[in-house]
Predict the structure.
Amino acid sequence: MHILVTNDDGVLAPGILVLAQAMRSLGKVSVLAPDHNWSASGHVKTLHRPLRVKEVLLADGTLALASDGAPSDCVALAVLGLLPDPIDLVISGINPNGNFGYDVTYSGTVTAAMEASIWGLPAMAVSLETPENHQGEVDYSVAASIALKIAMKIMSSAEIPARLLLNVNVPCLPETEIKGWRVTRMGLRIYRDELVRRLDPRGRPYYWIGGDAPTGIPDEGTDIGAIEKGYVSITPLQLDLTAHALIPTLQSWDWINE
Ligand code: MN
């Protein structure tokens, strides 16, 4: 079993180290992650500049690879042959903040897993919903042990569903206080972004997308609802974004005579 571990916070972020350490009990682990933070970078394919890869040592003394590409580039590099051994599972994380609802389209953590799905590999993104007012170091150990259990579940299943792509969110609770696991759908995020316009030292305007952190609607059955109640949320995703419900309506429009 060969597991590729990546993230979007950078190869030296604490979450990826704890995740890689946990996964070693399941098989061979390769770490290939960005050399800096790509949070909220979306699904990237770097085509107009070369990608560089260098060896780095993680805090536990193990060897990892760092690339100047995006999280999704890291997965592509690994799958396309940078790593000689075939990959069985891709795990991205552990992100220090939850990825709920439409966050999945922004998230580097999730889009790394999406890239794996494009190449036909089972993948999961793992995020810890650290509260906004959290003080001190983040403890990733519970999320890592849950990620390991989910990985074991996937790899021991009789038949892994094609392009299995899971978005896993873990509440920031001691393991004994986690109520259980819920398979969920994407909830509705409420973004509170505000456009901030300021002037640079030469008097020209620049813009910054500011505002408060997003909230969300904790509907029953959703990722946001599960986390709010203290459950691990496991949302199966797919890259086919077709709005099937709109196909009959659009087919009924007269497209020729307009
Ligand atoms: Mn991140």
